[in-house]
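User: I'm curious whether this sequence folds into something compact or stays loose and floppy. Could you predict its structure so I can see for myself?
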Amino acid sequence: MLPLLSIKQFFRDMRNQKLRTLMTMFGIMWGTVSVILLMAFGTGLHEYQVQRFRGLGEFITIIWPGMTSQPWEGLPRGRRIRPTEDDVVGMQKTLSSIKSISPEFTRYNVMLKSPRENMVVRVSGVWPEFHEMRNIIPAQGGRFINDKDMANRRRTIFIGDELAEKLYAGEDPVGLSMQVNGMPFVIVGVMQPKKQNSSYGGRDKRNCYIPSTTFLNMYSHRFPNNIVVQAPDATQMERTKDDIYKYMAGRYNFNPEDTEALSIWDTTEGFKFFNTFFLAFRAFLVGIGCLTLITAGIGVTNIMNVVLEERSKEIGIKMALGAKRINILMQFMFETVLLTILGGTIGFLIALAIVKVFPLLNLTEHLGTPTLRAGGAIVTTSILGLLAFLAGIFPARRAASLEPVKALKLF
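Assistant: Here's the prediction. I'll summarize afterward.
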């Protein structure tokens, strides 16, 4: 019967103090909305940026030629170290810490001609493994360069999606012919659109790729512009880099500790920093939401203290008629929890509606898609539960500790 009586008492107080109760519930509601939305938008933004970051590739490092900064075994410093395609083949065969590898020969200001448009672009000669390392996925109906293209030195070309749209607007270019510096090439694939927020030679959507064997037939490039290497996973990247340095040091006779002999960009390091930053950022957002809820909790405590003052005579009568302290304590705690649950439920529903509607506003390109995880709901519920307990326990203990005679004398 106690919960039923407490509910009746709660709604009676709501009718008597509508504005005060609604303002208190609004505080709980607003705090709940803040916590959930900040977590949802923080998670969505993090996942969106991770997706864009992975557009460059996962577990990869890019190697450029360098210059020795230390003398070694009688040789002077300042020697140019320029890996060749033979070095790439050797690393692929001998280094078990490498999952995939490809040289990248690059030519800038290459003229592309289609029946509709002419463009000057960047063309790269690569191995077939390149597209998997760099997350360059062919759209349906097309493919990337394959081993037969390499072996037969075919004039096949794979182009970025933005490039395809400009050269063949509204038309599927796969299977069509185009000219690359006056030579006919067959388009074998178009890149599937992807998010990308970092690059080293322009966005992939504006680049095109041909077999490295075909590239070397067209241009007198002996040295790759860079080498792309993929480790089995992020934890083995340091071993992969060490193995590469030792291999190249043995080939070109330089100090394996000379970090300037080769210029290496380890993308996993940026990814680690990125994850750490967003972990701190999301914690900051959740902290702001929690402070908002704490402010609301103070409001709940205040209103329950006011209720205690107004109902002191009622409490005194109940205790004089035999009500136990635990009954008074539980009644106040129950009303506090009920007030918190109502405000929290309304806030949760409002936040959920915003999360569902936001993608329809076409703003996800900048903020990502807000995502509400089960963990976020559990955290919010836990915070609300703790808040309800702390907000109600002190007024409830005060009410339960009142002496019947003193309580009756107050009125």
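Summary: The chain has a mean pLDDT of 83. Residues 2-53+272-409 form one domain.
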